[in-house]
Here is the input.
Amino acid sequence: MGTKLLVTHGTDGDVLPFVRLGSLLRERGHDVTVITHAPYGPAIERRGLGFVAIDTEAEYERQLADTAPLLAGNRLDRWRGFYERNGLFGQITAEYEAIAERHVPGGTVVIGRHTSALSALMAAEGLGAPAVWAAVSPIQIMAERPARHLYATALKSGLAGVRAAAGLDPVTPWGRPDLQLGFWPGWFDEAGARSSGTLLTGFPLADDRSFPVPPAAAELLQGPVPPIVVTGGTGRMMHPAFYERAVAGCAEAGLPALLVVRHRDLVPRPLPQNVHWVPALPFHSALAGAGAILHHGGIGTIARALVSGTPQVILAHGVDRPDNAERLAASGLAGWLPAASWRPDLIAALLHEAVRTGAETLTAADGLAGAVQEIERLAGTGRSTEQGPALPPGLSGPRRAALLKVLEARR
Amino acid sequence: MNEALTPTEAAVTRLWAELLEAEPKSRDADFFELGGQSLTLLRFVARVQDAYGVELPVEMLFAEDLTVAVAARAIDESLAEGADDGRLEELMAELDALSDEQVRALLAEGGDR
Here is the structure.
């Protein structure tokens, strides 16, 4: 069935969908390698997939710690500094080399995380391998235009070096993928800015992390009052007050809470008596026992909560989270607060409301199974047949309509 | 707010108040000083596109001083551009840059997106 090379960056919400996509492709007989951060190696290899580390665990942790300043301000040069400090230009070169080594002419598709996996576009250009960009949240599509501006300005010289090292013309503008996928459903897309030129396959529904619920957490989840599960996801690109305000909200609500945060230094001290900390929790088995989940608005957490029918309250700040939260709230599926309103009484009111009203369990097609079909179609034909070719970025809404008017006039 | 804002400045003020941590108090209020982030700016751009049917220039997303007045001026200029022949020429050039397949895809999809 050919070779499928997956390249992804970020935290669980970005990486786990690719790991599971790789597993599904392998089950279908494809030879799969995932190229990503070192800490995900064991989980990838356990599934019988090939793995190439793009960093070391220490480098990955250092890079995560360096992401918080990216949230503030808009100066172009902060991005160049981030790429340089974290060796990201060299990382793209290493990714491309790993792809080129494994590339089988005529039988390889490269699937990269939207916007960040430039190595996938390089593979299309330099090796002729069909390239797929897969986005995990709509804001990635919204961010494509400024990202391409960054590639053409602040990151231009660094990327020219990357291209030259791969034997590509240093100044040719970046191309477009042969297929662009979005791992969210149509109703979520329609609840905010629409994603043009993107084939939507639905949320990735299964959780890839399987391990026993820690005993103290199990006791809480089986207790008389279902606890609030509090999580800010697995990243560190967070509002500094997130955990403190979330914990204060649970205390104000008088509800027991299970605080799930991987990084010990982010845990507020001292914790109120009704809040218990665990570094990780297998959400797919544990969320069903929660009264509600109070979280940051990461798309992976949103999908997990929808699937397990857990009511959601979102304290959204930064990256894709306010956009995700707005879409969910507009669909009547969550309550949310922007950072300026993170007051214990407001959080407690939303938690009580969520616990009282409950939530429906989402039944939907698995977006990753849909993605496998599209990738196989692309591998067979060289292009996606359902959505047609990906349109240039920015061709949405009125601009698209204006272009259509011109087209109509020309006919 | 004790100064007379233009209608577009007033609209920008309303949009920023909705998106940011604090309401802009004047036309010189700065997006980033009010707690705005680059991805919040993308949501502002999406709302402008929704409300005015114009796509703000990408350079504005990286402007050094993004005040209410600067954002409002960018909207007004984009609207003015949309009204003249230059806009049509730009669209024609954009159309010429599309492949036949892309043009067919656009026509097949219609203008409802």
